[in-house]
Specification:
The chain is an alpha/beta fold. Helix content is about 30%, strand content about 25%. The protein has helices spanning about 1-15, 90-100, 160-175, 195-200, 215-220, 245-270, and strands at about 25, 40-45, 65-70, 70-80, 105-115, 125-135, 180-185, 205-210, 225-235. Strands 5-8-7-6-9 form a five-stranded mixed beta barrel, surrounded by four helices. Strand 7, helix 4 and strand 8 form a beta-alpha-beta unit. The longest helix has 25 residues, at about 245-270. The model has no long low-confidence stretch (mean pLDDT about 95).
């Protein structure tokens, strides 16, 4: 795997020249619009990058974007990878390894998720303060990549508290409904049953989704500070008369994206 990371990194460097990103950004479902604010210098399709997994989910463009945002050099994944697509955890987190090898110093992650907390409504944002991992595998299982990090990395503080505090201040400054909470990662792709929503809330979750945690584990393994934010697209804390659809989730995500983009841009500017 190390050889694959190295060869993929070298290929990307051959395409982007002397551009060296400082910040890595992973954009979730319906949240790819941040790319419009990037002064783009290079675009690479996942499908054209050696060993790079290809996103198979609708609404995920599958492009690696290199450019400048708020004066910072960034590489943005416009579309992420999920366990339910059939990829294993090492494939899902391979892009994070590559971004670290390209030189990023921080990782920003976004996702669309469902609320488990009655105080967190659809259309609100939630800064992820901690998580509960209910995925059936771990990206660190198997031989450890000693060049990247330790065999048993600490996960007592997986999300950078300073970045989270700054983001919350930004949200308050611009009167954006934003909370801090615990994100629960589940395999998907089906949404949860009523009993599962109740269980996830009981064990301490504030929001539930199908991504983010594998990337965060690998980032922590590599001592890469992480900021993560969820756009709340639906509410699982009460009985719904009508079934939720992916189209509705994407619609709410796209409507809420400008608020998320404002926080990310202001946070970048503050670094």
């Amino acid at each position: 795997m190390f050889q694959n990371i190295y060869s993929t990194t070298e290929y990307i460097k051959s395409r982007i020249g002397d551009f060296q990103p400082e910040i890595g950004i992973i954009l979730g479902t319906g949240l790819g619009g941040l790319v419009d604010d990037i002064e783009v210098e290079h675009k690479l399709m996942y499908a054209n990058i050696p060993d790079f997994p290809v996103s198979t989910v609708e609404y995920h463009s599958g492009r690696l974007i290199f450019g400048t945002l708020q004066g910072k050099r960034v590489v943005a994944m416009q579309g992420r990878l999920h366990y339910y697509e059939g990829y294993d955890m090492k494939q899902i987190t391979f892009p994070v390894r590559v971004m670290k090898s390209l030189g990023i110093q921080r990782l920003f992650v976004s996702n669309a998720s469902g609320s488990l907390n009655p105080e967190i409504k659809s259309g609100h944002l939630m800064i992820i303060d901690d998580h509960i991992n209910l995925l059936p595998d771990n990206p660190l299982r198997g031989r450890n990549l000693d060049d990247f990090g330790p065999r048993f990395p600490d996960m007592s503080c997986p999300y950078d508290p300073e970045l989270s505090a700054r983001a919350l201040e930004i949200a308050r400054k611009f009167d954006i409904a934003c909370h801090k909470g615990v994100y629960v990662a589940v395999p998907g792709p089906n949404l949860e049953t009523r009993a599962e929503y109740k269980y996830l809330r009981t064990i301490g979750g504030d929001a539930v989704g199908m991504s983010t945690v594998p990337e965060v584990i690998v980032a922590n393994h590599m001592s890469l500070p992480v900021f993560a934010i969820s756009v709340i697209t639906d509410e699982g804390f009460h009985y719904r008369q009508d079934a939720i659809s992916i189209e509705e989730i994407v619609r709410v995500a796209e409507e809420s994206e400008p608020k998320m983009t404002r926080i990310l841009k202001e946070l970048l500017a503050s670094l």
